[in-house]
Amino acid sequence: MTIALIILHAAPERANPRADTAVRLAGAMLADGKDVRLFLAGEGVLLLKGTETAGDSTHALLNELLELGLEVQCCGSSLQAQGIDALPKGVNKSSMKGLSAWISAVDEVVCF
Fold first, then answer.
1. pLDDT tens digit at each of 112 positions of the chain
2. How are beta strands 108-111 and 3-8 bridged, if at all?
3. Handedness of CA 96, 80, 42, 40 (dihedral sign)
4. Cβ–Cβ < 8 Å for 91, 66
5. Nearest of 38, 49, 61, 51 to residue 111 by alpha carbon
6. Cα–Cα distance, 30 to 80 (Å, whole number)
7. Distance from C-alpha of 80 to C-alpha of 45, rounded to nearest angstrom
8. CA separation for the pair 94, 112 (Å, rounded)
9. pTM higher than 0.90, yes or no?
């Protein structure tokens, strides 16, 4: 099975749709039978704000993908910088060392 890693460091904003594209790509890759991992760093961790309400399509899709087994890890320093303490179910705190290990273990890497 192909393992894909998506690295998101862009904030989820309407003017900059990279976060939405990253989540939609994760869904497409899962549908293609790939094992998909999503690593959130920098402002990408802001994607986690609002997941409990799923008020927009990006957050709703992220919640759905988490239920389907999407692996999500976040940079601990980025979480701290953005003031995020609580993580949704299925999302784990990690580090650059963790990201490095994921990069070494996957077949494909895409960055947003």
1. 899 999 999 988 877 799 999 999 999 999 999 999 999 999 999 999 865 554 578 888 999 999 998 999 999 999 999 999 999 999 999 999 999 999 999 999 999 9
2. parallel
3. positive
4. yes
5. 38
6. 29
7. 10
8. 18
9. yes
